Amino acid sequence: MAGSKSDPYELDVLRAAIGQATSIITTTPLTEVYLALFTGAAAADGTGTEATGGGYARKACKAAWGTPANGSVSNSSVISFTTFTGSVSAGAPITHFALMTAATGGAATYWGELTDATKVFGNGDTAQFPVGALTLTEQ
After folding, report:
1. What does pTM read for this prediction?
2. Distance between CA 96 and CA 109 in Å, rounded?
């Protein structure tokens, strides 16, 4: 027999992933969530080739997410990384993102491919995601 999650449960999964209080799932909200950039696809277990060098660090972004509705949630404010101080990932294009539970290490909760998978970052550049640029979907 096949089954599916209810809509309220799906919304709670999204709330838990972005550190918001849940209504069905009993959990303590994450203190913070972090956006990570990758030069290749992030795997289901959160592994992959995360960006390195050039002053890259994951960006804390818990406050940047809207309220989940209709099975998805998007960033409701601009997410900007700190200005890079050198070449990020030796000039390799940043192609993917993941939402992580810690500033280093931790677990990935969601990941996806970026629309512009050709962007490279160097000294003085800033990775920035406008409102609505990142959407997490629960199915």
Report:
1. 0.91
2. 14
